Fold this sequence. Notes:
globular
Amino acid sequence: MMFQQDKMFPRFALYGFLKNLRFFEPFLILIFRDVGLSFLLIGSLYAVRDVATNILEIPTGVFADAFGRRKSMVMAFSAYIVSFVIFYFGRGFWFYALAMVLFAFGEAFRSGTHKALILEYLKINHMERLKVSYYGRTRSASQFGSAINALIAAALAFYTGSYKVMFLAAMVPYLLDLVNLATYPPELDGELAQVQWQTIGVQSQQTLRNFREMFTDWRAWRAILNSAGFMALFKATKDYLQPILKSFALALPVFLFWSGKQRSAAVIGIVYFLIYLSTSYASRNADRFSRHFPNLGRAINLTFLTGAGLLLVAGVAAWLHWILLSIVVFLFFYVFHNLRRPMNVAFISDQISHKVMASGLSVESQVATVLTAIFAVLLGWLADLLGVGAALALLGSVVLLMYTFVRVDEQPPASAPTVSA
């Protein structure tokens, strides 16, 4: 059956579009480098964010399943907005660390929860066969938002000469998204949406009981580890494209009448715009891509190997000062991440009960945050010691070695529902 839009699809797509208008994101490492932080301190800030997210993942996932996914999303965006204020006004490592903790509150309340809202909607409307196609198209809107985000961020940096103003600017789309989420239909909260305060204890115990049952299935664990491992690799390394682009921009023998920051802003904005247009297309066509393989497990395994290999090549190219090649390979690394994500969500959702979907996807995110924290500090230390290119190549090699432990079963269980359109 072909994908068809419905009344909620534009709202889901709008959420992703607005959520990805984080204007500071294409410049985050440059922002921290601009105020004098080493790569190790930057990696430590990323680790603070990820460890805080990790601590909060399980309770916030249980909160979403037991007391309301929409409430969880509203709390997430409120925390994000406060963190943006601190990033703008704060000075020094410890202020940024506090902002990262608040950002982690947002990530913990959000991660897995909106996917659970979408999957609940598909279940209610008997559209579960469209998981990859439907989620891939909503993610495509998110990636298109990232493409527009890159252009707006570049314009802000170019005309204001300031990176930090992007934190204030990001508050506008986040306030709009908060309103969008708060007005989602109440039935998307799932079976436990109607909370009776006198039975909160009983509902919490039932959610936790279902949650524990998820850990008895090795297939579910492999699916979670495969997705989380690659996601951690991507999250820890994706921003290291920024110093590579800065070096490329400063080496160009054009626009010499612009300042270094203006040239960097222009190049970063254009490259990220092209990257996110590509990833938007990739997410939209994840279902079509997955159908080139005999099963979803095979597609997930091969894209894991290819993606980690691409990062290795990008790192080696940067180390050898083949900067243009490194940038192009990084583009494909972004594309493979966004091809994988809808497939991973669909694959994981086939392994766990819909009653604990937000909790299950939060476990995936929790594992990813632990690995991201480790990767971020290791990568920062290696980048200070050996340079960005060598650090990326070494980390890509490490993740390739993980494959034996995260390879998913390519033979779906007999009871598994169809995931492609």
